[in-house]
Specification:
This protein is an alpha+beta fold. Helices cover 34% and strands 17% of the residues. Helix 1 runs antiparallel to helix 4. It starts with a strand and ends in a 13-residue tail after the last strand.
Amino acid sequence: MLRIWVPSAAPRCPLRPTLGIMSRLGCPCGHTIRDNTDGLPYKASFIKNSFCESFSDWLVQEIQSYVLAAERGSISEWLRSRSYDESYVSLKLDHGNTLYDHIHSKYLALKRDVYECPACGRLHIETSKDNMFLAYSPESEKNNGALSE
C-alpha cells in the first residue's frame, strides 16, 4: 500500500469537511504523480456501487426537503438542522451554491480517487482509508490511457 504526501499547510475550506488533499503520489516505477490542479487527464473519482443507491435516495430526499424549506422561507433552520454552523448560515448563499455545498460535501465523503501513472500505466486506487492507495499494473506494462477521454 502506498501513502501519499500531504503538505502540512494544505488549504482547508472552512465550509466543507476536512479531507486529505493529495499533492504527490510516488509510483513504484519511480514516476511522481502530481495532483495540484483540476481537470487532470490521469485522475478519476468514483463512488462504490454499494453506495450509489443510498446516495441517490439521500439526494432526492435532501433536495425535496430543501425545496420545502425554501418555499417556507426557512433555509437557515434547514441548514442548522444539518449541523451547519452560524458562520455558514450567515453567508446567506443563493440556492444553487447552498445545494452545491451540501451535495458536494456528501459526495466528497463517499468518493474515492484513482490515478493512472502517465509513465507505466499503473492504476492507483484509493482505499477506504483516506490517502492510502493500492497499485494495479496493466498486463501491457505501458500507459493504456484508461482514464483519458
